[in-house]
Design goal:
Elements (H helix, E strand, L loop, with lengths): L1 E10 L2 E11 L4 E6 L5 H8 L7 E6 L5 E4 L11 H6 L3 H19 L5 H19 L5 H11 L16 H15 L3 E5 L7 H12 L4 E5 L3 H7 L2 E6 L2 E6 L2 H36 L6 H13 L25 E12 L2 E12 L8 E5 L2 E4 L14 E3 L16
Helix pairs in contact: 3-4, 5-6, 9-10
Length: about 400
Protein backbone atom coordinates (compact mmCIF):
# COMPACT_ATOMS: atom_id res chain seq x y z
CA UNK A 1 0.00 0.00 0.00
CA UNK A 2 2.72 2.48 1.07
CA UNK A 3 6.40 1.62 0.90
CA UNK A 4 9.51 3.47 2.09
CA UNK A 5 12.81 2.44 0.50
CA UNK A 6 16.21 3.45 1.94
CA UNK A 7 14.43 6.48 3.38
CA UNK A 8 16.26 9.09 5.43
CA UNK A 9 15.60 12.51 6.93
CA UNK A 10 17.73 15.13 8.60
CA UNK A 11 17.26 18.61 10.03
CA UNK A 12 20.38 20.66 9.39
CA UNK A 13 23.29 18.64 10.77
CA UNK A 14 21.07 16.35 12.82
CA UNK A 15 20.27 13.00 11.21
CA UNK A 16 16.88 11.72 12.40
CA UNK A 17 16.85 8.36 10.63
CA UNK A 18 18.28 6.62 7.57
CA UNK A 19 18.05 3.36 5.67
CA UNK A 20 14.35 2.95 6.40
CA UNK A 21 12.68 0.11 4.48
CA UNK A 22 9.05 -0.19 5.52
CA UNK A 23 5.94 -1.59 3.85
CA UNK A 24 2.54 -0.64 5.30
CA UNK A 25 -0.19 -3.09 4.34
CA UNK A 26 -3.97 -2.40 4.17
CA UNK A 27 -4.89 -3.81 7.62
CA UNK A 28 -1.84 -2.78 9.67
CA UNK A 29 -2.35 -1.50 13.23
CA UNK A 30 0.93 0.19 14.06
CA UNK A 31 2.24 2.05 17.09
CA UNK A 32 5.18 4.35 16.29
CA UNK A 33 7.46 4.82 19.31
CA UNK A 34 10.84 6.29 20.15
CA UNK A 35 12.49 8.85 22.41
CA UNK A 36 11.59 12.52 22.06
CA UNK A 37 13.37 14.13 19.12
CA UNK A 38 13.97 10.93 17.15
CA UNK A 39 11.62 11.96 14.34
CA UNK A 40 8.33 10.19 15.07
CA UNK A 41 6.11 13.14 14.11
CA UNK A 42 8.30 13.87 11.09
CA UNK A 43 7.96 10.29 9.84
CA UNK A 44 4.19 10.50 10.30
CA UNK A 45 4.11 13.69 8.19
CA UNK A 46 6.20 12.01 5.50
CA UNK A 47 3.66 9.17 5.31
CA UNK A 48 0.94 11.83 4.98
CA UNK A 49 2.89 13.59 2.18
CA UNK A 50 3.23 16.72 4.33
CA UNK A 51 7.03 16.48 4.40
CA UNK A 52 9.59 15.11 1.97
CA UNK A 53 12.48 12.70 2.36
CA UNK A 54 16.13 13.75 2.07
CA UNK A 55 17.17 10.26 1.00
CA UNK A 56 15.41 7.29 -0.53
CA UNK A 57 11.86 7.14 -1.84
CA UNK A 58 8.22 6.64 -0.89
CA UNK A 59 5.76 4.76 -3.11
CA UNK A 60 2.00 5.04 -2.60
CA UNK A 61 -0.43 2.76 -4.40
CA UNK A 62 -2.97 4.41 -6.69
CA UNK A 63 -6.17 5.47 -4.98
CA UNK A 64 -4.74 5.32 -1.45
CA UNK A 65 -5.78 8.19 0.82
CA UNK A 66 -4.02 9.25 4.02
CA UNK A 67 -5.41 11.43 6.81
CA UNK A 68 -3.14 13.13 9.36
CA UNK A 69 -4.00 14.53 12.80
CA UNK A 70 -1.27 16.67 14.43
CA UNK A 71 -0.82 16.94 18.19
CA UNK A 72 -2.36 20.41 18.32
CA UNK A 73 -2.56 23.75 16.54
CA UNK A 74 -5.69 23.27 14.42
CA UNK A 75 -8.38 25.97 14.55
CA UNK A 76 -11.79 25.84 12.90
CA UNK A 77 -14.33 28.63 12.39
CA UNK A 78 -17.28 29.72 10.26
CA UNK A 79 -19.49 26.66 10.79
CA UNK A 80 -21.36 24.87 13.51
CA UNK A 81 -19.79 21.70 14.91
CA UNK A 82 -22.27 19.50 13.05
CA UNK A 83 -21.86 21.40 9.75
CA UNK A 84 -18.07 21.22 10.05
CA UNK A 85 -18.24 17.45 10.37
CA UNK A 86 -20.78 17.15 7.56
CA UNK A 87 -18.34 19.02 5.28
CA UNK A 88 -16.26 15.85 4.89
CA UNK A 89 -19.16 14.36 2.92
CA UNK A 90 -19.18 17.09 0.26
CA UNK A 91 -19.27 14.58 -2.61
CA UNK A 92 -22.14 12.63 -1.08
CA UNK A 93 -24.06 15.82 -0.38
CA UNK A 94 -23.52 16.92 -4.00
CA UNK A 95 -24.95 13.59 -5.10
CA UNK A 96 -27.91 14.10 -2.78
CA UNK A 97 -28.59 17.52 -4.31
CA UNK A 98 -28.38 16.03 -7.80
CA UNK A 99 -30.88 13.34 -6.81
CA UNK A 100 -33.28 16.04 -5.59
CA UNK A 101 -32.91 17.93 -8.88
CA UNK A 102 -33.44 14.76 -10.88
CA UNK A 103 -36.55 13.95 -8.84
CA UNK A 104 -37.93 17.42 -9.54
CA UNK A 105 -37.22 17.01 -13.26
CA UNK A 106 -38.94 13.62 -13.41
CA UNK A 107 -42.06 15.06 -11.78
CA UNK A 108 -42.35 17.59 -14.63
CA UNK A 109 -41.54 15.29 -17.57
CA UNK A 110 -43.82 13.02 -19.54
CA UNK A 111 -43.25 9.51 -18.29
CA UNK A 112 -43.43 8.18 -21.82
CA UNK A 113 -40.76 10.54 -23.20
CA UNK A 114 -37.16 9.61 -23.96
CA UNK A 115 -35.91 12.49 -21.83
CA UNK A 116 -37.73 11.08 -18.80
CA UNK A 117 -36.06 7.71 -19.43
CA UNK A 118 -32.61 9.36 -19.52
CA UNK A 119 -33.23 11.34 -16.32
CA UNK A 120 -34.60 8.25 -14.54
CA UNK A 121 -31.59 6.28 -15.71
CA UNK A 122 -29.24 8.89 -14.31
CA UNK A 123 -31.16 8.99 -11.01
CA UNK A 124 -30.90 5.23 -10.66
CA UNK A 125 -27.12 5.26 -11.15
CA UNK A 126 -26.55 8.16 -8.73
CA UNK A 127 -28.91 6.73 -6.12
CA UNK A 128 -27.21 3.31 -6.32
CA UNK A 129 -23.77 4.83 -5.70
CA UNK A 130 -25.17 7.09 -2.96
CA UNK A 131 -26.68 4.10 -1.18
CA UNK A 132 -23.58 1.93 -1.61
CA UNK A 133 -21.53 4.65 0.11
CA UNK A 134 -23.96 4.85 3.06
CA UNK A 135 -25.21 8.24 1.95
CA UNK A 136 -28.46 7.87 3.86
CA UNK A 137 -26.55 7.31 7.11
CA UNK A 138 -24.09 10.22 7.11
CA UNK A 139 -26.00 12.31 9.65
CA UNK A 140 -26.24 9.32 11.97
CA UNK A 141 -22.50 8.71 11.54
CA UNK A 142 -21.70 12.31 12.45
CA UNK A 143 -23.91 12.13 15.53
CA UNK A 144 -22.34 8.87 16.64
CA UNK A 145 -18.76 10.14 16.34
CA UNK A 146 -19.52 13.48 18.02
CA UNK A 147 -21.25 11.72 20.91
CA UNK A 148 -18.36 9.29 21.25
CA UNK A 149 -15.86 12.15 21.46
CA UNK A 150 -17.82 13.84 24.23
CA UNK A 151 -19.98 16.45 22.46
CA UNK A 152 -23.46 16.86 23.91
CA UNK A 153 -26.30 17.26 21.44
CA UNK A 154 -26.78 20.92 22.34
CA UNK A 155 -23.12 21.50 21.37
CA UNK A 156 -23.68 20.34 17.80
CA UNK A 157 -25.24 23.63 16.70
CA UNK A 158 -22.66 25.83 18.41
CA UNK A 159 -20.02 27.61 16.33
CA UNK A 160 -16.67 25.82 16.27
CA UNK A 161 -14.77 28.96 17.31
CA UNK A 162 -16.64 28.96 20.63
CA UNK A 163 -14.61 25.94 21.69
CA UNK A 164 -11.16 25.82 23.27
CA UNK A 165 -8.10 24.42 21.51
CA UNK A 166 -8.52 20.96 22.98
CA UNK A 167 -12.12 20.72 21.83
CA UNK A 168 -11.17 22.03 18.39
CA UNK A 169 -8.75 19.11 18.14
CA UNK A 170 -11.66 16.79 18.98
CA UNK A 171 -13.63 18.28 16.08
CA UNK A 172 -10.63 17.75 13.78
CA UNK A 173 -10.35 14.15 14.99
CA UNK A 174 -14.07 13.62 14.38
CA UNK A 175 -13.72 14.86 10.78
CA UNK A 176 -10.78 12.57 10.16
CA UNK A 177 -12.57 9.51 11.54
CA UNK A 178 -15.62 10.29 9.39
CA UNK A 179 -13.46 10.53 6.26
CA UNK A 180 -12.14 6.99 6.86
CA UNK A 181 -8.89 7.31 4.89
CA UNK A 182 -7.03 4.15 3.85
CA UNK A 183 -4.20 5.18 6.19
CA UNK A 184 -5.05 7.00 9.42
CA UNK A 185 -2.10 8.91 10.91
CA UNK A 186 -2.68 10.03 14.50
CA UNK A 187 -0.11 12.00 16.51
CA UNK A 188 -1.00 11.75 20.23
CA UNK A 189 -4.77 11.46 19.59
CA UNK A 190 -5.62 10.99 23.29
CA UNK A 191 -3.94 14.23 24.45
CA UNK A 192 -7.20 16.18 24.51
CA UNK A 193 -9.58 13.37 25.42
CA UNK A 194 -11.12 12.54 28.78
CA UNK A 195 -11.40 8.93 29.92
CA UNK A 196 -14.77 8.22 28.30
CA UNK A 197 -13.78 9.68 24.92
CA UNK A 198 -10.46 7.84 25.05
CA UNK A 199 -12.25 4.54 25.70
CA UNK A 200 -14.63 5.23 22.82
CA UNK A 201 -11.70 5.95 20.47
CA UNK A 202 -10.06 2.72 21.59
CA UNK A 203 -13.14 0.74 20.57
CA UNK A 204 -13.51 2.69 17.33
CA UNK A 205 -9.94 1.89 16.26
CA UNK A 206 -10.31 -1.82 16.99
CA UNK A 207 -13.14 -1.85 14.42
CA UNK A 208 -11.47 0.52 11.92
CA UNK A 209 -11.59 -1.11 8.48
CA UNK A 210 -8.26 0.23 7.19
CA UNK A 211 -4.67 0.72 8.36
CA UNK A 212 -3.52 3.22 10.95
CA UNK A 213 -0.25 4.44 12.46
CA UNK A 214 -0.41 6.24 15.78
CA UNK A 215 1.96 7.90 18.22
CA UNK A 216 0.96 7.79 21.87
CA UNK A 217 2.58 7.97 25.30
CA UNK A 218 -0.40 6.03 26.67
CA UNK A 219 1.03 2.52 26.81
CA UNK A 220 -2.32 0.93 27.73
CA UNK A 221 -3.95 2.60 24.73
CA UNK A 222 -1.20 1.14 22.52
CA UNK A 223 -1.56 -2.26 24.15
CA UNK A 224 -5.21 -2.63 23.17
CA UNK A 225 -5.18 -0.93 19.74
CA UNK A 226 -2.01 -1.99 17.88
CA UNK A 227 -0.62 -5.31 16.70
CA UNK A 228 2.80 -4.07 15.62
CA UNK A 229 5.32 -1.63 17.08
CA UNK A 230 7.73 0.36 14.91
CA UNK A 231 10.51 2.01 16.92
CA UNK A 232 12.91 4.73 15.82
CA UNK A 233 16.10 3.88 17.69
CA UNK A 234 19.73 4.56 16.95
CA UNK A 235 18.72 6.41 13.72
CA UNK A 236 17.11 3.25 12.34
CA UNK A 237 13.67 1.76 12.57
CA UNK A 238 13.04 -1.60 14.20
CA UNK A 239 9.95 -3.78 13.90
CA UNK A 240 8.31 -5.69 16.72
CA UNK A 241 5.33 -8.02 16.38
CA UNK A 242 2.64 -7.63 19.03
CA UNK A 243 1.51 -4.85 21.34
CA UNK A 244 3.51 -2.54 23.62
CA UNK A 245 4.11 -5.17 26.30
CA UNK A 246 5.55 -7.57 23.72
CA UNK A 247 7.68 -4.76 22.32
CA UNK A 248 9.27 -4.07 25.72
CA UNK A 249 10.17 -7.74 26.14
CA UNK A 250 11.68 -7.99 22.64
CA UNK A 251 13.49 -4.66 22.97
CA UNK A 252 15.27 -5.81 26.13
CA UNK A 253 16.43 -8.96 24.34
CA UNK A 254 17.57 -6.97 21.30
CA UNK A 255 19.52 -4.53 23.48
CA UNK A 256 21.28 -7.39 25.23
CA UNK A 257 22.20 -8.95 21.87
CA UNK A 258 23.55 -5.62 20.58
CA UNK A 259 25.66 -5.11 23.72
CA UNK A 260 27.07 -8.65 23.43
CA UNK A 261 27.94 -8.07 19.75
CA UNK A 262 29.54 -4.73 20.68
CA UNK A 263 31.72 -6.37 23.35
CA UNK A 264 32.80 -9.15 20.99
CA UNK A 265 33.69 -6.63 18.28
CA UNK A 266 35.70 -4.49 20.72
CA UNK A 267 37.67 -7.55 21.79
CA UNK A 268 38.40 -8.40 18.15
CA UNK A 269 39.47 -4.82 17.39
CA UNK A 270 41.84 -4.79 20.37
CA UNK A 271 43.36 -8.13 19.25
CA UNK A 272 43.92 -6.79 15.73
CA UNK A 273 45.41 -3.51 16.92
CA UNK A 274 47.77 -5.27 19.34
CA UNK A 275 49.01 -7.55 16.54
CA UNK A 276 49.43 -4.66 14.08
CA UNK A 277 51.34 -2.49 16.57
CA UNK A 278 53.57 -5.39 17.61
CA UNK A 279 54.57 -6.64 14.16
CA UNK A 280 54.14 -3.54 11.96
CA UNK A 281 57.87 -3.22 11.25
CA UNK A 282 58.76 -6.91 10.93
CA UNK A 283 59.21 -7.95 7.29
CA UNK A 284 58.29 -11.57 8.05
CA UNK A 285 54.89 -10.47 9.38
CA UNK A 286 54.12 -7.80 6.76
CA UNK A 287 51.52 -9.88 4.92
CA UNK A 288 49.68 -10.76 8.14
CA UNK A 289 49.80 -7.15 9.31
CA UNK A 290 48.30 -5.91 6.02
CA UNK A 291 45.58 -8.56 6.23
CA UNK A 292 44.56 -7.35 9.70
CA UNK A 293 44.68 -3.70 8.64
CA UNK A 294 42.25 -4.50 5.80
CA UNK A 295 40.01 -6.38 8.21
CA UNK A 296 39.85 -3.30 10.45
CA UNK A 297 39.09 -1.02 7.50
CA UNK A 298 36.25 -3.22 6.26
CA UNK A 299 34.73 -3.74 9.70
CA UNK A 300 31.25 -2.24 10.15
CA UNK A 301 31.62 -0.70 13.60
CA UNK A 302 28.78 -1.31 16.04
CA UNK A 303 27.65 1.77 17.93
CA UNK A 304 25.71 1.73 21.14
CA UNK A 305 23.17 4.56 21.35
CA UNK A 306 23.02 6.73 24.43
CA UNK A 307 20.97 5.37 27.28
CA UNK A 308 17.44 6.74 27.24
CA UNK A 309 16.96 9.33 29.94
CA UNK A 310 14.57 8.49 32.73
CA UNK A 311 12.93 10.81 35.22
CA UNK A 312 13.68 10.27 38.88
CA UNK A 313 11.84 12.07 41.64
CA UNK A 314 10.88 11.54 45.25
CA UNK A 315 8.47 13.09 47.72
CA UNK A 316 9.87 14.18 51.08
CA UNK A 317 8.52 12.18 53.99
CA UNK A 318 6.03 14.34 55.96
CA UNK A 319 5.26 14.09 59.63
CA UNK A 320 2.74 11.39 60.45
CA UNK A 321 -0.86 12.63 60.38
CA UNK A 322 -3.92 11.36 62.16
CA UNK A 323 -6.17 8.68 60.67
CA UNK A 324 -8.41 11.29 59.02
CA UNK A 325 -6.44 13.50 56.63
CA UNK A 326 -9.36 15.59 55.36
CA UNK A 327 -13.14 15.53 55.54
CA UNK A 328 -15.37 17.25 52.97
CA UNK A 329 -18.95 17.83 54.05
CA UNK A 330 -21.65 19.09 51.66
CA UNK A 331 -19.25 21.17 49.56
CA UNK A 332 -20.18 22.91 46.29
CA UNK A 333 -18.41 24.98 43.65
CA UNK A 334 -19.65 27.39 40.97
CA UNK A 335 -18.14 29.69 38.36
CA UNK A 336 -20.62 32.53 38.09
CA UNK A 337 -23.94 30.89 37.29
CA UNK A 338 -22.28 27.64 36.23
CA UNK A 339 -22.50 25.01 38.94
CA UNK A 340 -19.63 22.54 38.79
CA UNK A 341 -20.65 20.30 41.70
CA UNK A 342 -22.74 20.39 44.88
CA UNK A 343 -23.50 18.36 48.00
CA UNK A 344 -20.21 16.46 47.74
CA UNK A 345 -19.14 14.70 50.92
CA UNK A 346 -16.23 12.35 51.37
CA UNK A 347 -13.32 11.57 53.65
CA UNK A 348 -9.61 11.07 52.95
CA UNK A 349 -7.81 8.77 55.35
CA UNK A 350 -4.11 8.24 55.90
CA UNK A 351 -2.67 5.96 53.21
CA UNK A 352 -5.47 6.54 50.67
CA UNK A 353 -4.56 6.63 46.98
CA UNK A 354 -7.29 8.53 45.14
CA UNK A 355 -7.68 9.28 41.46
CA UNK A 356 -10.12 12.00 40.37
CA UNK A 357 -11.82 11.55 37.03
CA UNK A 358 -14.47 13.67 35.37
CA UNK A 359 -16.43 14.06 32.16
CA UNK A 360 -15.47 17.11 30.14
CA UNK A 361 -18.38 18.98 28.56
CA UNK A 362 -16.50 22.05 27.35
CA UNK A 363 -13.30 23.69 28.49
CA UNK A 364 -15.35 25.35 31.23
CA UNK A 365 -17.83 22.54 31.97
CA UNK A 366 -16.68 19.83 34.28
CA UNK A 367 -18.61 17.72 36.72
CA UNK A 368 -17.54 14.99 39.09
CA UNK A 369 -18.04 11.52 37.58
CA UNK A 370 -17.23 9.48 40.64
CA UNK A 371 -17.36 10.40 44.32
CA UNK A 372 -16.21 8.62 47.41
CA UNK A 373 -18.85 9.38 50.03
CA UNK A 374 -18.56 9.13 53.79
CA UNK A 375 -20.69 6.54 55.60
CA UNK A 376 -24.25 7.56 56.52
CA UNK A 377 -24.40 9.99 59.41
CA UNK A 378 -24.68 13.71 60.19
CA UNK A 379 -23.12 15.90 57.47
CA UNK A 380 -21.79 19.37 57.99
CA UNK A 381 -22.81 22.12 55.58
CA UNK A 382 -20.14 23.15 53.07
CA UNK A 383 -17.02 22.66 55.16
CA UNK A 384 -13.55 21.26 54.65
CA UNK A 385 -12.02 19.93 57.85
CA UNK A 386 -8.26 19.39 57.75
CA UNK A 387 -6.33 18.59 60.96
CA UNK A 388 -3.40 20.86 61.77
CA UNK A 389 -0.94 17.94 61.59
CA UNK A 390 -1.64 17.41 57.90
CA UNK A 391 0.96 18.80 55.48
CA UNK A 392 -0.16 19.50 51.91
CA UNK A 393 2.14 19.75 48.90
CA UNK A 394 0.12 22.68 47.61
CA UNK A 395 -2.13 24.95 49.62
CA UNK A 396 -4.55 27.66 48.61
CA UNK A 397 -7.97 29.07 49.27
CA UNK A 398 -11.02 27.30 47.87
CA UNK A 399 -14.29 29.21 47.72
CA UNK A 400 -16.86 26.64 48.80
CA UNK A 401 -20.42 27.75 49.38
Amino acid sequence: MIQLSSAGKRYGHKLLFEGVDWLITPKDRIGLVGANGTGKSTLLKILGKLETLDYGSISIAKGISAGYLPQDGLTLSGRTVFAECMSVFSKLRAMEEEMEQLTASMSELDHASQEYTQVADRYQRVEHEFQSRDGYAIEAQVGSVLTGLGFRKDDWNRQTDEFSGGWQMRIALAKLLLQKPNLLLLDEPTNHLDLEARNWLEEYLTEYPYAFVLISHDRYFLDVTVSKIVEIWNKRIHFYAGNYDKYEEQKTQRREQLEAAYRNQRERIEQLEVFINRFRYQATKAKQVQSRIKELEKMDRIELPEEEKTIHFSFPQPKASGRIVAEFAGIAKSYGEKEVFRDVSFMIERGDRIGKIHINQTARRQRTAERRRIPPGPQRSGRLLCPGSVQRARSGRSNFR
